[in-house]
Amino acid sequence: MVVLIFVAVALVIGAAVDAAPNLKTRQSITTLSSSQISAYTPYSWYASAGYCAASTTQTWTCGSNCEANSGFQPVASGGDGDSTQYWFVGYDPSLDTVIVSHQGTDPSEILPLISDADIKKTTLDSTLFPGISSSIEVHSGFADAQAKAATDVLAAVETTLSTYNTTTVTTVGHSLGAAISLLDLVYLPLHLPSGLTYQMFGYGLPRVGNQAFADYIDANLPITHINNEEDPIPILPGMFLGFVHPSGEVHIEDSGSWDACPGQDNSSKLCIVGDVPEIWDGDESDHDGPYGPVEMGC
Ligand SMILES: *[C@@H]1O[C@H](CO)[C@@H](O)[C@H](O)[C@H]1NC(C)=O
Ligand SMILES: *[C@@H]1O[C@H](CO)[C@@H](O)[C@H](O)[C@H]1NC(C)=O
């Protein structure tokens, strides 16, 4: 009996000691290698191409943003660049994924949306987001922007999946476009067959929803949100208003190195929350990049 208890205790201690170093590795801030950084480049160009007029992404003749991913097979484009952000959907053969991209906006247009002290949060629409918990709340302006193109984007993704027989869906976007693409990432799996893989690459992403929203993303959907130097957009809307970023932050330092920041809203100075504590510490000109070789815009 005594021996058994001793063995059991030893096993528990052994497990605890084993777990500790793993936890530490997982949670430390890591600097990305140059090959890890360049793996983001095609997605950065797709996010930038989101700014191009639908007529030019439909034919994939949008200039340097399109030429950077010359193998892309466009399927559908939409939006008017005014009341509805431009968007496009298609297939990348070398990445073997559906790409969904939404247009962003410049700091002067997005700042009023996200720095207002009485920003409205809303639950997700139960027709677009069937079964989603009512504890999840998001910025109502972002929800409205996503709803405008949602069903057209879904139809285009379904066409792309069947035409190109792929099983991966990738959403991308910069600024407001990143917020819409994050909501698309939640929306699409609720309507598509199971067994698909999802990922999202966002650039200069503002905070989109509350703690329950960030936790839902962390539990279900892998995302990477890259922010550049002292860009103030990713620190808005403020945490004091109940907005929380999901995990997956990559922060581009002034030195040019890219650091992966573990957790939600990591307060280290190597991550955006520590680097830009207040909006007046920010520099709006950092919002568009560059993210590697890509300065966002068309
Ligand atoms: C589609 O891809 C799957 C593997 O992912 C394969 O088994 C199937 O044969 C493919 N279908 C067509 C029509 O190419
Ligand atoms: C922030 O990163 C550090 C590693 O430097 C880690 O120990 C800490 O847990 C992270 N914070 C959060 C909120 O995850």
What does this structure look like?
The chain is α/β, with parallel strands linked by helices and 298 residues long. Helices cover 37% and strands 18% of the residues. The chain has 10 helices and 11 strands. The strands form 2 sheets. Strands 1-11-10-9-8-7-4-3-2 form a 9-stranded mixed beta sheet, sandwiched between helices. A two-stranded antiparallel sheet has the order 5-6. α7 crosses α8 (176-187). The site of one 2-acetamido-2-deoxy-beta-D-glucopyranose has 2 residues, from loops. Belongs to the AB hydrolase superfamily. Lipase family. Class 3 subfamily. One of its GO terms (biological process) is lipid metabolic process. It comes from Neolentinus lepideus HHB14362 ss-1.
Q: What tags apply to this protein structure?
A:
two-stranded antiparallel sheet, 298 residues, disordered N terminus, binds 2-acetamido-2-deoxy-beta-D-glucopyranose, 10 helices, alpha/beta, nine-stranded mixed sheet
